[in-house]
């Protein structure tokens, strides 16, 4: 160990900090980091700025595996100018960790003497190289399964949500007990096979929130996948694993599901393109259901071009072996007319509404301005209550028997949703279904001759330490309408709110999925052009 020249009190502070790390003593760790908004901590996931952000991250991380410090290197960076006080001394420490389970890590810390104590003002951690990030992947390879050697999707890799059948493998549904008892699948789901036949290869099976019954992206058993756009934030669920894999560059495409927003929410949170297809357009054979009246298959990608390639292939007769309808490249383009649903827009936070207004202003001032008009969707609370009732009744029919046989097998939040679902009566379900019919008809009427546009979610991804109940409620009121009507919806990363991505959602009439992706790409190109020419314009929402 090289520690020559380290001041005795600095070495004592370093050793005490290391003991606190191994013991996961959160109070002691907080005290070792300098207070205030300028303290820094970085690792392979990104940079945290400010003591509060660092503290919040640490409260969820858990302790580090057992390790010893193999080396410590010291370099003085600055010396106090006053003989009366040593405050102001600054030093760099770099240390090498040797983990008892194998592997080495590196810690780089800037320490400063403040009020007579050595405190960390900046730190960077390089952890030991993991075999895989188990919060993202259940199984992964390079590739995990090879697709056709040639085809329109050749060279692309796919992260498959752990709800789809892959021949020879089990479906895990985000729950270790369910995975352990599942039988290997005898056939591959058509939605997976279509991608393989086009030349894409599977990178792996990616995590999902338990039974896809969440939109946060956390999992009580496997942890929370990282948000690829916002350090320390929730990734969005239930397609959390595949979305994070795409956002972090581990895969090019995510094959996912969307019941109440499970593609659109993680797309918005992580700055991705995410398409929920028309209900029943993509076959759901070989997919573990949550609520069949709303379950829909779709994809996420980092750019619109890749998403277009996937949609063109999978939603055309040429591409899909099982898609019954054809909405291919020769289909008519959607109208350059947009309707803005005022009740949905009201669910967004003030900063997001302001950003959305600037986005609309840029489009209106462009060389190719679309038309806008405000519309009313009706009572979102009533629609969501009916949606939640039908969703819960179907979810309990699908999974209730297993849950009764395995008490305590699911995490608390998902268990509570199933507990409520188990109480839904047949009369309540019938009444809810009747209530959804006029809502779906009205929404379909709104997009007959126009495309609905609004922020995908209320705002940027919440931090993992945040209370998300209110955010969840507002989010579902924004995402449920497209599910109620079975309409295609795409989230496009067109807003930046407080430095974080927020999607713009476009909803069109049933069966116009490919045209919707084309329209979204046109809108994204126009938005980029308008931002370059008039970044400061604002506009009142029509």
Descriptive overview:
The chain has 542 residues and is α/β, with parallel strands linked by helices. It folds into 2 domains: 8-126, Nuclear Transport Factor 2, Chain: A, CATH 3.10.450; 137-380 and 415-533, Amidase signature (AS) domain (Amidase signature (AS) enzymes, Alpha-Beta Complex), CATH 3.90.1300. It has 15 helices and 17 strands. It has helices at residues 8-23, 26-32, 51-61, 176-181, 190-197, 240-247, 264-270, 304-314, 342-346, 350-364, 380-405, 412-422, 426-446, 469-485, 513-533; strands spanning 40-43, 46-49, 67-78, 90-99, 104-114, 117-126, 137-145, 157-161, 201-206, 253-258, 273-276, 296-301, 337-341, 371-375, 451-455, 489-497, 500-507. It has an 11-stranded mixed β-sheet, sandwiched between helices. Strands 2-1-6-5-4-3 form a 6-stranded mixed β-sheet, with helices on one face. A hairpin with a 4-residue loop joins β4 (90-99) and β5. α11 (380-405) crosses α14. The longest helix has 26 residues, at 380-405. The termini are far apart. Mean pLDDT is 92; it is low at 323-330 and 535-542.
């Amino acid at each position: 160990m090289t520690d020559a020249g380290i001041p005795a009190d600095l070495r004592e502070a370093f050793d005490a900090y290391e003991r606190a790390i191994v013991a996961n003593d959160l109070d002691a760790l907080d005290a070792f980091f300098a207070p205030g908004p300028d303290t820094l901590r970085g690792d392979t996931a990104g940079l945290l700025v400010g003591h509060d952000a660092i503290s919040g991250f640490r409260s969820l991380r858990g302790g580090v595996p057992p390790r010893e410090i193999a080396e410590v290197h010291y370099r003085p960076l600055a010396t106090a100018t006053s003989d009366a006080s040593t405050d102001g001394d600054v030093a760099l420490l770099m240390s090498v960790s040797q983990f008892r389970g194998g592997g080495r890590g590196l810690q780089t810390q800037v320490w400063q003497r403040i009020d007579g104590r050595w405190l960390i003002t900046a730190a960077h951690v390089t952890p030991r190289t993991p075999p895989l990030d188990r919060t993202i992947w259940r199984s992964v390879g390079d590739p995990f399964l090879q697709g056709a050697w040639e085809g329109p999707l050749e060279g692309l890799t796919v992260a498959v949500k752990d709800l789809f059948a892959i021949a020879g493998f089990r479906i895990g549904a985000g729950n270790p007990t369910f995975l352990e008892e599942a039988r290997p699948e005898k056939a591959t789901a058509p939605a997976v096979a279509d991608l393989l036949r086009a030349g894409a290869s599977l990178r792996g099976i990616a995590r999902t929130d338990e039974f896809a019954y969440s939109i946060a992206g956390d999992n009580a058993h496997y942890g929370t996948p990282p948000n690829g756009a916002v350090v320390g934030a929730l990734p969005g669920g239930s397609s959390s694993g595949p979305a994070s894999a795409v956002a972090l560059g581990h895969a090019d495409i995510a094959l996912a599901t969307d019941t109440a927003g499970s593609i659109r929410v993680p797309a918005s949170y992580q700055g991705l393109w995410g398409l929920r297809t028309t209900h029943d357009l993509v076959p759901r054979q070989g997919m573990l259901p949550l609520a069949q009246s709303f379950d829909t298959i779709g994809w996420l990608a980092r750019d619109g071009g890749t998403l277009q390639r996937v949609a063109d292939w999978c939603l055309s007769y040429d591409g899909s072996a099982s898609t019954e309808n054809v909405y291919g490249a020769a289909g008519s383009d959607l109208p350059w007319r947009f309707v803005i649903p005022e009740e949905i827009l009201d669910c967004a936070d003030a900063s997001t509404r302001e950003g959305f207004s600037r986005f609309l202003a840029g489009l209106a001032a462009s060389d190719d301005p679309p038309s806008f008009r405000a519309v009313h969707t009706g009572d979102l609370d009533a629609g969501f209550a009916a949606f939640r009732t039908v969703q819960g009744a179907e979810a309990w029919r699908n999974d209730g028997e297993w849950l009764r046989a395995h008490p305590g097998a699911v995490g608390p939040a998902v268990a509570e949703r199933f507990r409520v679902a188990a109480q839904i009566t047949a009369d309540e379900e019938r009444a809810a279904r009747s209530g959804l019919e006029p809502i779906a008809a009205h929404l379909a009427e709104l997009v007959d001759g126009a495309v609905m546009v609004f922020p995908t979610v209320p705002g940027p991804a919440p931090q993992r330490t945040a209370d998300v109940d209110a955010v969840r409620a507002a989010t579902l009121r924004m995402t449920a309408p497209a599910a109620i009507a079975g309409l295609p919806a795409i989230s496009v990363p067109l807003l930046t709110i407080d430095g974080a991505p927020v999607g713009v959602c476009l909803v069109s009439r049933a069966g116009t999925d490919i045209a919707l992706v084309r329209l979204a790409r046109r809108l994204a190109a126009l938005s980029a052009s308008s931002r370059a020419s008039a970044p400061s314009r604002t506009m009142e929402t029509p």
